[in-house]
Amino acid sequence: AQQQVSIDLNTNDAKHVISKHIYGHFAEHLGRCIYDGFWVDPALNVPKKDRIRLDIVDALKKINIPNLRWPGGCFADEYHWRDGIGPRAQRPKMVNTNWGGVVEDNSFGTHEFLELCGLLGAEPYIAGNVGSGTVEEMAKWVEYLNFDGVSPLANLRKENGKAEPWKVSFWGVGNENWGCGGNMTAEFYADQYRRYATYARNYPGAPLKKIAGGANSWDTNWTDVLMKKIPLNEMWGISLHYYTIPTGNWTTKGSSTDFGEAQYFSTLKNGLAMDSLVRAHSAIMDKYDPTKKVALVVDEWGIWTDVIPGTNPGFLYQQNSMRDAVIAGSTLNIFNNHSDRVKVASLAQTVNVLQALILTEKEKMLLTPTYHVFDLFKVHMEAKQIPLKFSSPGYKVGNETVPAINASASIDAKGAVHITLVNVDAKQKISINTALNGLKWSKVTGRIVTSAKFTDHNSFDNPNKITARTFTGAKKSGNQLVAELPPLSVVELELK
Ligand code: AHR
Prior knowledge:
Number of domains: 2
Distance between the termini: 32 Å
Family: Belongs to the glycosyl hydrolase 51 family.
Shape: globular
CATH superfamily of the largest domain: Glycosidases
CATH class of the largest domain: Alpha Beta
CATH topology of the largest domain: TIM Barrel
GO molecular function, one term: alpha-L-arabinofuranosidase activity
Largest sheet: 8 strands, parallel, barrel
Subunit structure: Homohexamer; trimer of dimers.
Oligomer: single chain
Catalytic activity: Hydrolysis of terminal non-reducing alpha-L-arabinofuranoside residues in alpha-L-arabinosides
Low-confidence stretches: none
Number of strands: 27
Bound molecules: alpha-L-arabinofuranose
Helix content: 10-25%
Strand order of the largest sheet: 2-5-8-9-10-11-12-13
Strand content: 25-35%
Radius of gyration: 22 Å
CATH architecture of the largest domain: Alpha-Beta Barrel
Domain Alpha-L-arabinofuranosidase C-terminal: 299-489
């Protein structure tokens, strides 16, 4: 029998603004994300500004990319920013110890990254080095970036061709300091944070949003210690990293394109756990910060599979299938529904690494199913979240069940309501019936990302197999919205 879901939505319940920064991205000096991704060989025959690839820039502008996190990741705690400024020919070449032991030639540094952010119209989110850097080094980077006056670092920036400061705002005080960022205890890191953050100054007109390096997935003790030991007014946010491993096992994570329904299902279970994870960390934060002044910043998330066979294991290059689209849509719905606490998030990573939006092969470029999901969801940016009430039927595989449907909704400044829905069920279509209270509307339009198989993906030979298409399966019936969601689908509806 056809599954039915009744959803209750009342626009008068809309309260929290969905921060556009939930839709942020991450670009590390890892594999082919920066080098041979954003930043290409001068001889490559693609549109470029300097060595920045403009077809990538254009694609990201279309989804209104709000911010870009850089230079890592693990790379950040071994990055010394002075290596990446000044004449390129004189910048040191060194080894990227974290990612494949390849040569890092430092041709992409501070100026190049901020030029890229300018082209994208995205806010920079820089992660400073705590693990192997010094307080002075971080303090001087901030001065170089943000001080508009006379000082040795502001003068050096001017000598390097940038008269005005960039006024960078999002500032990560280290990354994964429980692991690659220094193997610290939570107590030790909290004290380090206080020192580093003291000297990362707020220059006139350039206040920093300082973000503490947060927990690894379920380590709620890390969050607890940071919330307890760091004065809340010295920390704008606290981060959280969580990756969806298809098998749940870091040694054999599973293939990005070759998997069956059991592994599709375990990926879903692991991906949907983001909801409980955000709840768990938010509950700890609520104890110390009931008015939610400190943001939860999920600045690394996404599916992490085994690499494509034959590629450098340190490059983390994987394909992106309809399964990735389902996880992306579900995760973004989760973030929207926690918009009271989650204010920034960054998918890992933008180009050619992990759950990428964009894959490239020499001159060729393709947009992944995940990219198209971000395109659907951009309507929620800075709109007010509307809580939804419904009970989802289950999607059952073996003896286990997950909710087949997840959704979120918002109302924008012009009064248009947007609902995004994901049907994770690989076989069943599901009808929804929505009671809309508080809203006068006359018309529904929609877009959909779907494909017959969860392993379907875009290849360089067939780059548009999965894209965002017009959705015609929704209609108005009285004041009810009625829609039929195909299996494996991510749908965005607009009601006006
Ligand atoms: O995104 C890849 C890596 O995953 C990042 O460098 C690190 O922060 C995390 O462990």
